[in-house]
Fold this sequence. Notes:
Helix content is 52%, strand content 12%.
Amino acid sequence: MLNAAGSLTFASERSPAAVTFDALRLDDCHRSLTTRLWVGFGARMQDLTATVTYDQGQLYIYSITLTEQPIYRAARLLCFLVLFAAADAALLLLFAHVGERGAARRRALRLPLALAGITLLACLPLFSNYLYFGHDLEFHMQRIAAMAAELSYGQFPVRLTTTTLNGYGYASPLCYCELFLLLPALLYNLWLPLRTCYQIYLFAVTLATCLIAYFSFAKITASRRLGLLGALLYTLSAYRLTCVYTRAAVGEFTAMAFFPLVLLGLYGIYTSDRPRFGDWLPMALGMAAMVQSHLLSCELTALLLILFCLLRLRETLRPARLLAWVKAALLAVGLSAWYLFPFFISTRSIPFLVNRSDLVGKLQKHGLYAVQLFSFFGTAGGSSAEGTTHDMALTPGLPLLLALALAFYCLWRAQARGDTRPAAKHLYTATGFAVLTLVLSLHAFPWDFVEGWFGPAVGKVVGMFQFPFRFLSLGTLLLCAAALFALQLLPERRAALAAAWLVCAALLTASITETNIMSAQGESSYATYNQNATINSVGTAEYLIDGASSYEAIWAQPKPASGDLHLISYEKREGVAYVSVENDGGEAAISLPIYNYGNYYAADESGAPFAITSGENMRIVLTIPAGYTGTIHVRYHAPGYWRAFEALSAVSLLGVIGCGAFARRKRRTPATV
């Protein structure tokens, strides 16, 4: 963190609540700083008061410039229009018709209203002017703000953020796909407060989770009611709420939205003798979405899928089914090609810290104790270190533990009665894999032994999981599926009673969990994000170049290697570094405060290129000819051939849309003889 000489705040005496502003830290390493200020209804510019608070060192304020951004007026107007349109549509659908027609319409709206209610209940902590503290919140706020900046500079897709780490740059987008962060980044470029952009993203992901879960479970069980129950259990699950609000694990809870699609694809492939396009498509879409949201979740899912295929090897090797797997895999790779191939190329050519096997930590200490796993509720906040005193809520929660008990009861009942219905077979598989995921999440599972016994290659793969409790995400999905299959095996009245108990348990668990979050976790405004921050903004800094130190990013100025080489000026504008030098002596080098991730290009005003090498702290080094005077610009530019991968993904997406439209039209066209 840079040392602060003081801070700047704004306020309004007439209407304090109308001003939104995060205090600007006036650090001792910059001559100028830029931030954002929102003045809402009830306050005027003439009523604003700027307050400078002195802390330490030397602090000079020469001027404060306020510039209006007209785009925010348009964005605000658009928000009001959307809200009014949504309210009018709801009133029209609910109250515009009377009599039998109105009653029929309201009955048809019960399902959408139920899904909307589930989403709203899962999003209650979002309806605040603050964000609740999450473990990775700082890192993801930085990702959104940095991506928004690069989009405004014209870099698309964003491969590297040039503003992160005090302008040194960071290769997070190359390794950690940011496709789904386009929504909050674009909203931030419309000058909405950063926390609002994040809250909208969380709402959108929660809505997508609820809708995808309903669609998938309804298809699997051939029942809308069971699909709705599955959506409720999954969206309000304790572990998912912990990921969203306590851990702020953006990649993981985004990937969880697509887990049900993978389950639906698996169901479609293995319940059809000749899987069609619609049977294996969910598998391809789900895996592609996971690759582009959270690669670790994709790897965990792939491990369970491989195990499933091995256990059912004879069925898997049937030509039609094997062909469906190949098609799904090729489509998933095609849809992800724009990110996946540059990722592989970059990780092989750039010595990222994450590639060092000696830095992979032991993960068994983060495993769960049985008392945690089988606790009905949990506290908000905390971590996952050894012991349980300060741990967060890491449990499937009361409803899914009841679902596990119900699954065991129905399995015993089916075994005793010789039940051979398909639901019994599906229940056996879902319960078995759910129990496996719970076992893998335990502290008792010998992860450290596995990591050390099977050599560095296997140890590195295992260590990349970081936390055994990540298996709870898949366990949550499988327990939801097991609950629905179990209900299919029960008599109608017993099934209805069991479902009611599960609904009550889910509502109770969600309410208690969210109350704990809102009362026990800290709050932060996050109206903006300051990219001048150093180590705190990149978490564990695993995407730094081996040999670089984020702590040294505090000093963001060029370093001439010779006393005869004079630095005239240095600045970064729209992602491009401009360095003006005057060399009175022989050939000399100058080090720039930019990490050399490769694909940087340097040239002067005449277009003459300059060679780029790496120096101390992996900074870019330019060699300045003798007697040279001029300005050199350094910019990042992704290789041109990467556009071919982007084109492949675009063609794959268009192919999916075209095939889907053709299949839909074919189903609607009546056969004629």
